[in-house]
Amino acid sequence: MDELLKDGKYLCFLSTVDEDSRPHLRPLICIIFSGKIYFSTKDGSRKAKEIALNPCIELVVPHIESESLAYVCFSGDAFRIYEESVKNRIIDNSGYKLSDYLIIKEKDNILLYELLPISVERFDPIEKCVKNITRELFNKNKNFN
């Protein structure tokens, strides 16, 4: 994971499925911290409702590599982090400031999710092909187990 994406904030695209099995894609900011991927939303949002119905998601992180567009696509499950102390530790230590990305009112409950990847694909801009790197990542990075 460290070779693909370093700790920090990334623009990504999250795909969920609604109650009618229709896909819904949206841009958001994800954080990569200690080899894991996190994203947040407000309780009651469309994103939170769709994940509650079906936690299967895809998250695509585009980036520039060798002056060309590349991307990494993570397919897996969104796991909600319930414990406030864990949620706060992740947010505080990552440098992720929720108010920079969400309009937060005092009564809002912010949800934090960790992506538990099942498969990972990487678009290689030099070879111009998609490579399944799931096994490579799972074998190298114990954080994905």
Detailed description of the structure:
By secondary structure, the protein is an alpha+beta fold. Helices cover 18% and strands 49% of the residues. Strands 1-2-3-6-5-4 form a 6-stranded antiparallel β-barrel. The longest helix is centred in the middle third of the chain and has 11 residues, at 84-94. It is globular. It starts with 7 loop residues before the first strand and ends in a 5-residue tail after the last helix. The model has no long low-confidence stretch (mean pLDDT 84).
Proportion in helices = 10-25%
Over all CA atoms, what is the radius of gyration? 15 Å
Structural class: alpha+beta
The topology string of helices and strands comes to EEEHEEHEEH
CATH architecture: Roll
Number of helices: 3
Q: State the name of the first-level CATH class.
A: Mainly Beta
Please give the order of strands in the largest beta sheet: 1-2-3-6-5-4
How many individual domains? Answer: 1
CATH fold annotation: Pnp Oxidase, Chain A
The count of β-strands is 7
Q: How would you state the average pLDDT, rounded?
A: 84
CATH superfamily: Electron Transport, Fmn-binding Protein, Chain A
For the termini, the CA-CA separation is 13 Å
| Shape descriptor | globular
- Beta-strand content bin: over 45%
Reported for the largest beta sheet, the result is:
6 strands, antiparallel, barrel
Poorly predicted regions: none
